[in-house]
Request: fold
Amino acid sequence: MGGKEIFAVIAVLLLLLGCSGDGGAIELEGTEILEYEGQDLSSVNAFRENSIKGPQHIGIENYTLEVTGLVETPRTYTYDEAVGGFQAYKKVVTLDCVEGWSATILWEGFLLRDMLEDAGPNPEANTVILHAYDGYTTSFPLEYFYGEDILVAYKINNVTLPAERGYPFVLVAEAKWGYKWIKWITGIELSDDESYEGFWESRGYSDSGDLNESFFD
Amino acid sequence: MKASLIERAKLRGIVHWLLAIAVLLYIVSGFGITQYRAVEAVTFGVLTKELSFRLHGILFLPFIVLLAFHIYFTVLGRKRGKKGK
Reply:
């Protein structure tokens, strides 16, 4: 086998390796459903792992979700308080990743808007900054959560969100690119800083993250 | 005639090498997207995910053009080889 052939074989192997999924099935608490009201769903394993520090395993006994910043009453919720304290909703939403893959999932959770209302946004608040356990952040205009029913999900395809998908909470940022779907949420901060840039946004990704636009600024 | 053949051989060599480089960059930038944590660490933060995306997008057209030339030269070379026999 000559040099050219060896190069070709290595190139093909690298291509296959680069295009393959993450492998390893995730252990779930229960059986996920793969169809909902006649609609086919993607598996929990259909996602690629592309978080900034790898999956975060959060101990729920010490976990709190804080709503801070420009609010009348800053709030701190335990996992049970957040899950049990708000009306639950189910919705099938497709996540589209900038890497080119997508996953259509049945999400279950509460509306972020309901949690914001519980804290009472101040009139000057116009931006919502979300913080994650791994230091990841992203932001949205406040009106995004009032114009759409945006979920903070704790269940995926009828099973509790696994750590790899953002347990305890992931934002179902409908009509936004995947990098806006922040996982392992620990904080919701209301701000008047419209120019705030999250982790990927400060590295050249679009602030709005709208699906119908390029994800580059 | 002979000079033209030498020029063509040179051009073929350049195209083949450029294609090899393009393939390599295409693969590396692909990894820079899907395995960005590792690639950023290996390249000391030079090849970021954002740069990889841009590189991967830019390389697509040159890759196709070079591949077309590569195939053209290879097929042409084989035809000439057969005629020579």
Notes: Residues 49-84 of chain B form the longest helix (36 residues). Chain B has a mean pLDDT of 89.
